Amino acid sequence: AFMLEASEISVLEQRVRETLGIDNCIVVPGNSDTQDWVKQEMGKRCAQLLEGMLHPNYTVAVTGGTTMAALAAAMPPIHTAENVMFVPARGGIGEQVENEANTICAAMAKRARSQYRLLYVPDPIGEESYQTIIEEPSVKEVLSIINRSNVVIHGIGDAMTMAERRRTPAPLVEQIKSGVAVSEAFGYYFDAEGNVVHRVRTVGLQLEDLDKAEHVIAIAGGASKARAIASYFKLGRNNLLVTDEAAANQLIKGY
Ligand code: BG6
Q1: Which of 4, 115, 176, 230 has a Cα at 20 to 30 A from 248?
Q2: 9 with 27: CB under 8 angstroms?
Q3: Atom nearest to 219 CA in ligand 1
Q4: Cα torsion for 11, 16, 21, 22, to the nearest 10°?
Q5: Pocket of ligand 1 contains residue 221 by CB under 6 Å
Q6: Would you say the CB of residue 46 lies under 6 angstroms from ligand 1?
Q7: What is the rounded CA–CA span in Å between residue 27 and residue 7?
């Protein structure tokens, strides 16, 4: 397929905004399901947005995932306000190290010449050790930074894809198979109406924290994620999507 004209892109963006009932949407050409560079293009646009959002002393929380990893890799050096800090949104949720929030957080902070703090919660971990770790003063301190993040940037996953990628409890697998759980973001699983049906046991960003943040950016593309994107935005806690042409077309069609 040939590149879309700018005017065609803005029509797509407008229709996605209407479909999801959100104010802001950026669409890049292509399909991230099949073209790796599309994730990087979404990442570059996301980085530009971020640059415009930063103020002195801001904290930016980021999730893991392959899309966020592409963002970190494609992020041009950005000029940040003074004293900006990057943190991972949540503790270990079963991602491989290159796709972990900690890894992405450190890489993004480097591009932004900013500071970062990491969260070390081993995964998996027994209940007793877990309770001890989250009481550690150093962990608690990072958690308090995360919970008052000014900007949150996160991926959105298809529930089945994410469950297969992670160690997933049997009841959740059943919920997914029966069609109850549809999407996933930062360790929370949602149904088609945007209700939380499961959450990965770890510490960090809570759903309520999104309401306190000045900006929340979701970055997710690929036709295969349309249903998940629609489900996540039913939550009504996020108003800004960076996506691609394939997801946009599928969303508009009603998947
Ligand atoms: C996870 C994020 O690490 O990546 C989730 O915590 C997101 O918010 C997921 O659903 C998406 O992964 P990918 O690889 O499809 O970008």
Answers
A1: 176
A2: yes
A3: 16
A4: -80
A5: no
A6: no
A7: 12
Per-position pLDDT tens, the chain of length 255:
567 889 999 999 999 999 999 999 999 999 999 999 999 999 999 999 999 999 999 999 999 999 999 999 999 999 999 999 999 999 988 889 999 999 999 999 999 999 999 999 887 788 899 899 999 999 999 999 999 999 999 999 999 999 999 989 999 999 999 989 999 999 999 999 999 999 998 999 999 999 999 999 999 999 999 999 999 999 999 899 999 999 999 999 997
Cα–Cα distance for residue pair 156/164, rounded to 1 Å = 15
Which structure tokens are listed for 131? 């309770």
Residue 214, SS3?
A: coil
Cα–Cα distance between 81 and 67 in angstroms, integer? Answer: 25
Assess whether the C-beta atom of 184 lies below 6 angstroms from ligand 1.
yes
Atom from ligand 1 closest to the CA of residue 90: 6
Q: Which of 203, 187, 80 is closest to 145 using CA atoms?
A: 203
Whole-angstrom Cα distance, residue 108 to residue 240?
Answer: 20
Nearest CA to ligand 1 atom 15: 157
CA 86-63-50 angle, to 5 degrees, is 55
Collect all residues with Cβ–Cβ distance below 8 Å to 162 and sequence separation of at least 6: 184, 189
Q: Token digits for 67?
A: 């899309």
Which H, E and C letters describe 38-95, residue by residue?
Answer: HHHHHHHHHHHHHHHHCCCCCEEEECCCHHHHHHHHHCCCCCCCCCCEEEECECCCCC
Is the ipTM of this structure higher than 0.90? yes
